[in-house]
Amino acid sequence: MTERVDRAGLQVAAPLANFLEECALPGSGVAPDAFWRGVADIFARFAPENAALLATRDALQARIDAWHRERAGRPIDAAEYQAFLREIGYLVDEPAPFTIAPGAVDDEVACIAGPQLVVPILNARFLLNAANARWGSLYDALYGTDAIPGAAAGKGYDAARGAQVIAWAKAFLDRAVPLASGSWAAFAGGEPALADPAQLVGRAGDTLLFRHHGLHIELVVDRTHPIGRDDPAGIADMILESAVSTICDLEDSVAAVDAEDKVAAYANWLGLMRGDLEETFEKNGQPLTRRLNPDRSYTAPDGSAVTLPGRSLLFVRNVGHLMTTPALLLTDGREAPEGILDAIVTSLIGLHDVNGARTNSRAGAIYIVKPKMHGPEEAAFTDRLFDAVEDLLGLKRHTIKVGVMDEERRTSANLAACIHAVRNRVVFINTGFLDRTGDELHTSMLAGPMIRKGDMKGADWIKAYEDRNVQIGLACGLAGRAQIGKGMWAAPDRMADMLEQKIAHPRSGATTAWVPSPTAATLHATHYHAVDVSARQEERRAEPVASLERLLTVPVAHGHNWSPQDIADELENNAQGILGYVVRWVDQGVGCSKVPDIHDVGLMEDRATLRISSQHIANWLVHGVASAAEVDAAFTKMAAKVDAQNAGDPLYRPIAGNEETSLAFQAARALVFEGATQPNGYTEPLLHRFRQRVKAG
After folding, report:
1. Is there a catalytic annotation at residue 317?
2. Active-site residue among 606, 607, 611, 669?
3. Is 432 annotated for ligand binding?
4. Which stretches of 276-378 are assigned E, i.e. beta strand?
5. Diameter of the chain by CA atoms?
6. HSE of 67 in the Cβ direction (CA atoms, 13 Å)?
């Protein structure tokens, strides 16, 4: 039983109280007594409203379920459907034209287009890798991946592979920083004559710094280096500005179920904001300590000093409105809304940067991504909550910026109104195909059996969703003021495919898109040199916004008769993905990892992918496409598959043959068999329940 202490009538878990009073508050300028009184006031004001918003979600879902139940077996009339959604308040009126005004924001948010990492905040080593991924070696990224055909031979340096890498990189440089004549492949060194001399913006010794489309390229010239000594120009490496920003995630990629977990997460965020986070680990039998990289210094052509950030601009993603946390109990003894606690604590920690050296935000902002909001009413709630936190911490209004995850159906259907609700602090919108699909499945659970999961990406509502996100964002003035983002590339070992496909994101007019690793960030950065995102946004401004009717088209499989094998394949694919993720979450507390899929391809999985798979099977159960026995058979068969895929993990607990005792297996089943009744189809309530049981022994 966790010890609790009384603070202004709140019952606070001792580990959280100790962390706040001994680590987070000192140096913040906020007195502990005033802090706790303010925290109690915020919970008294906002916890009841948070509960009311969740009740509204449930009420709307009940009305939608009843509407579909009454029309079972009939095609959905688009006009009738929209009229119904407006009648119940699911759809709201569009706001009059407006332009967002978030105030002082960093260039990485307003005007630099480039890759974005999302990293679990509980893993300090991953956090440091991500923060330091602002700069990455293109040579290394190409050499060690399948980005270009072939692979290095042997354990030492493979000169043939190296030549292949250098040729690719110099061809890239020809496109991004062309010479006045000739190719970089033939460049013999000395002063480069550029087609646009203004692209040379700095030097550090013999190393040259170029800028293209707002991103920097560092050409490392070192004739003593093993690579540089064999290069005609002495080029030893090509360093790209890569992960321009990083989201440090408290939400879908972590398993934080109690006060101890929350404190560990908050402590890592504090280390980042103070700049003193470090992690020591063993590599090749030797201890290695990783720290945050310093800034990078150059001399401009006019002799002035040039300093560039050495690290990604860091956002923190709070949890949504749904979950509560045992880390703090309200005056009535109930668990506190976790999202409110996150807003208070992560902003308090942000003071160490804002009022300190500003090693993260030179503009003096605190960047919080807010996920899983349903509609403008919930966005407005977040805006008022952040007002209250600013007042508590003595911050100027709108110091706390917000990123709106456009990942729930009621938000994407009312996106302009959602942006309007946070127009003075919004710095980010993005599409999240995975959660958005999960919400699509749950919202329309009773409309009919859904198309197969693999067919979802080709559905017309997805295309409308992706288009509307950019089109509405541009109409609301996000260009030059805020990020418009796109979702994750989930296959970290398939960089050739990523290079071929993910260029679609900057071509869409999005200023950023998620990648799964620092290496992927460096490779994806080449796309932002290939596409002038600002020019692409200007082109897209003229487009009409994709219709709401297309967005609201429910992906029901009308008149589709799947074969028994089709059904078995779909169930097994979903069951394997569920088990592979849940067994790590529940048994080991791993919220995001590379999980082999049914074909043994490693995919980055988090709760969003789990939400789709569990809701899809739940939908097929509801409509009789599959029986409970068939689902159980798929789980049992896939348990053996997942055990085999995890055979090399010494911490892994086998589930095949232990189905009755494995809490992970029971959690996986519950996510499906209780899926139709979970709030909005979210997986968190069940995952937390089973993880807490594992931690309790």
Report:
1. yes
2. 606
3. yes
4. 278-283, 286-291, 296-299, 305-308, 313-317, 324-329, 335-337, 366-370
5. 77
6. 20
Strand order across the 135-137 sheet: 135-137, 235-241, 215-221, 207-212, 200-204, 296-299, 305-308
> Which residues, in sequence order, are CB contacts of 120 under 8 Å at separation 6+?
126, 249, 253, 254, 591, 592
Domain count, the chain: 3
Same domain flag for 186 and 251: no
Joined tokens for residue 545: 């916004």
CA distance linking residue 348 with residue 35, whole number of Å: 10
State the DSSP H helix or E strand holding residue 402, giving kind and residue range, or none if neither. Answer: strand 400-406
pLDDT tens per residue across span 183-234 = 999 999 999 999 999 999 999 999 999 999 999 999 999 999 999 999 999 9
Any domain includes 3 = no
Residue with tokens 């690290």: 311
The three-state secondary structure class of 684 is: helix
Angle between helices 628-645 and 663-673 in degrees, nearest 10 = 140
Question: Catalytic one among 296, 311, 317, 468?
Answer: 317
Across 383-397, b (16+ Cβ under 10 Å) vs e yields bebbbbbbebbebee
- CATH number assigned to the domain comprising residue 665: 1.20.1220.12
Residue 12 within a domain: no
Residue 81 in any domain: the answer is: no
Is 126 assigned a ligand-binding role in the annotation? yes
> Which structural domain, as residue segments, surrounds residue 359?
87-134+244-275+287-552
Tell whether 501 and 578 lie within a shared domain. Answer: no
Residue with tokens 């401004």: 541
Asked if residues 364 and 354 have their Cβ atoms less than 8 Å apart, the reply is yes
> How far apart (Å, rounded) are the C-alpha atoms in residues 193 and 247?
39
CA distance 66 to 519: 48
Is 516 known as a binding-site position? yes
Q: Is 125 annotated as a binding residue?
A: yes
Q: Is 7 annotated as a binding residue?
A: no
Indicate the pTM of the whole model: 0.98
Per-residue pLDDT tens for 519-552?
Answer: 999 999 999 999 999 999 999 999 999 999 999 9
Q: In terms of domains, do 593 and 678 share one?
A: yes
